[in-house]
User: Fold CDP-glucose 4,6-dehydratase from Novosphingobium chloroacetimidivorans.
Amino acid sequence: MEDLVSDAFWAGRRVFLTGHTGFKGSWLAIWLARMGAHVTGFALPAEEISLFGMAQVAELVSHVEGDIRDLAAVEAAMAACDPEVVFHLAAQPLVRESYQTPVQTFATNVQGTVHVLDACRRMPALKAIVCVTSDKCYENNEWVWPYRESDPMGGHDPYSASKGAAELVISAYRRSFFHGVEGAPLLASVRAGNVIGGGDWAKDRLIPDIVRALIAGEPPLIRSPGAIRPWQHVLEALGGYLLIAARLLQGREWAATAWNFGPADSDVQRVDWIADRLTARWGTAGWERGNEAGPHEAHILKLDCAKARSVLGWRPALTLGDALAMIVDWHRPVAAGENARKITYSQLDEYRYKFQSALAGAGIE
Assistant:
């Protein structure tokens, strides 16, 4: 299989990345910079405690602070970059936060996506756009069957609804302005499961909440131990995003559609399964049940990734156990004062080898 996620393919490419100060965006910025890409990041200022700050990501990219709700700012930063490829990750990413700030959530996740895509229309060198939404974009029927890319969009809470709406925006821009237009960039959307990994400090998110408690020497409080999610290490999703971007850069029109990237069926697990194994890996006595009161959140959510596996040759390179071990092996030394970027590089380089081996095993050209 052609090596599409490599230094040889990405070195020197101009990349515009929104949301690079966030957890997933920081990992992607580091991966792209590691391959030699010239990355311009556009995002709100990083949180006080973040992977972006700990790994000093600003030293690796052209760092531009701005808000995707400001079309003029988005277009100015993008024009200065003159990108070949755009990765749009900037978002309000939390379900519970969306109940507190629904207007901000819709403005960021829906209108912000409109702004990014509209700015893309005026970038002369642009060839590829990858918009990141969420597995929660689907109308969730709380059933055991995984959702396919062709299933209806929806959303009970403001966050999920905003991601479903963002997918409709992406589809409209693809069909109205990019598809079949000579010289226009190719546009894909990508939907990942619950991404986890070292450096995630978001509030009201399972892994960061557990890690904060473990670092403090306290028993983690688990809010919804029976909830089922498609857990996967952040690098698994990012590898899929990079693979799609590479196919778009090659002009493969079949890639300009929606794609699911989720874990193996055996890694779609309950919250208490995660809590048991993460605390055991840390070496603590376990966790306690917390207060489940709160706004509605999906109980069962699975993704069907047959399309990515059969067409792209993408597949998970890690088990969920591997991912949990990587989280502990990132957070414990960083909490002890070790260099966060060095540890991040080490995990990235090890994963890249496994990812390339998984792609080679697929044998798809």
